[in-house]
Amino acid sequence: MLEVKHITKYYGKNRAVNNLSFTVKDGEIFGLLGENGAGKTTTFRIIMGLIDSNEGEVLLDGEKIDYNLTDKIGFVTEERSLLTKLTVLEQLTFYGVLKGLDERTIEKDIDKWLEKFEISSYKNRKIKELSKGNQQKIQFISAIINHPKLLILDEPFTGLDPINVKLMKDAIYDLQKEGTSIIFSSHQMEYIEDFCEKLVILVKGHPVVSGMLKDIKEEFGIKNIMLRGDDLPLDKIKKVKGVLDVSKVRGEIEVKIEDKVIAPKIFSLVKNCNITKYDVVEPTLNEIFIAKVGGIHE
């Protein structure tokens, strides 16, 4: 289990991370979110032992992270960090050796992962000859070749088409089943909602939202009613107290309400309108992020 306990980090007078705490259990996928400059990269560097925090501590299975534990951590960065003149085999073997693995074990695992990602034929191709998407796959394999105890994923789907996104999602779920603790960071909130049950949203290094995603959505309060039907009384709906907005979204009418108790009032207005859809849904994480982070900037 990863434990981040009250870490604070200053760069000069600038406080990049401010009293941040969270835990990631074995086999848990945790979301770390925030705008650019919110403190995510600094947090990653502290977790990996690349820099020290001014206050607080980070523990992996109860031990302070140092060079004895870094071999148990994998990190997929948003930026490419590959040696493009090497072949795929040379690149992955190099990273495996750095992590203390023997070459026989490394090549066996390389063959397994290349087959899983459907790129076995590229084993002896140079990295620079691969597409951006296939380079991203190699970067991912480089990060997990050591079967990490902790895996940090920073925008891992960059450059991948939907088919390859699914391949990588499946690989992440496999690692989760093996008990790997995973920190997932992305600006694409739908990926966070797919993966993460628990998350933190940072603003200027400070957690402004923290907890289980289902609880965060419930506490947010605002719900969306999705409607489809004939001659819907939109003017009347807009006048209902507690209705925040009415808009058209992908051929449907979306009604934002401040509380679920408003939903029956909307239903009473549309029930005789030959409706083909009436669905009260939770707010998206994207909506919550904009409301929480955007509100702070106002």
Summary?
This protein is of the alpha/beta class and 298 residues long. Helix content is 35%, strand content 29%. A hairpin with a 2-residue loop joins strand 1 and strand 2.
Description:
The structure is a single chain. The protein has 10 helices and 14 strands. The protein is α/β, with parallel strands linked by helices and 298 residues long. Helix 2 (88-98) crosses helix 3. The protein is globular, with a radius of gyration of 23 Å.
Helix content: 25-40%
Q: What is the spatial order of strands in the main beta sheet?
A: 6-7-8-3-9-10
Question: How many strands, which pairing sense, and closed or not: the largest β-sheet?
Answer: 6 strands, mixed
Mean pLDDT: 90
Given helix and strand content, the structural type is alpha/beta
Q: Which strand-content bin applies to the residues?
A: 25-35%
Q: What's the alpha carbon Rg, rounded to whole Å?
A: 23 Å
Tally of strands: 14
Would you identify the regions where 5 or more consecutive residues have pLDDT less than 50? none
Distance between the termini: 37 Å
**Total of DSSP H or I helical runs spanning 4+ residues:** 10
What's the topology here?
Elements (H helix, E strand, L loop, with lengths): L1 E10 L2 E11 L4 E6 L5 H8 L7 E6 L2 E2 L8 E4 L11 H11 L4 H14 L15 H13 L5 E5 L7 H16 L3 E5 L3 H7 L2 E6 L2 E7 H8 L2 E6 L5 H6 L3 E7 L2 E6 L5 H8 L6 E5 L3 H13 L1
Parallel strand pairs: 3-8, 3-9, 6-7, 7-8
Antiparallel strand pairs: 1-2, 1-4, 4-5, 9-10, 11-13, 11-14, 12-13
Helix pairs in contact: 2-3, 2-4
